[in-house]
Design brief:
Mean pLDDT: 78
Number of domains: 2
Distance between the termini: 83 Å
Shape: elongated
Structural class: mainly alpha
Number of helices: 3
Strand content: under 5%
Radius of gyration: 28 Å
Number of strands: 0
Helix content: over 70%
Largest sheet: none
Length: about 70
């Protein structure tokens, strides 16, 4: 009988902790929605990097095609 009581107490404690953690995650999610970040302003340098990588990839791909015809 003692084990059942311990188990039920442990389950109740786990459930209350889980409920508390759900409340905190909900409140943090609501805060994140309120703080909208402009990614265009925050990561302006990424677009330039992507353009450079695209040009480099295109040049390498063209070089591979040319080498395939030559070799």
């Amino acid at each position: 009988m003692a084990k059942r009581k311990k188990r039920s107490k442990a389950r109740k404690q786990q459930q209350t902790q889980l409920a508390k953690s759900r409340k905190t995650t909900i409140s943090t999610a609501e805060k994140k929605k309120a703080d909208k970040v402009s990614f265009k302003e925050e990561y302006y340098y990424v677009l330039g990097d992507l353009k450079r990588m695209g040009v480099l990839a295109a040049v390498m791909f063209a070089l591979m095609i040319v080498l395939a015809f030559i070799l």
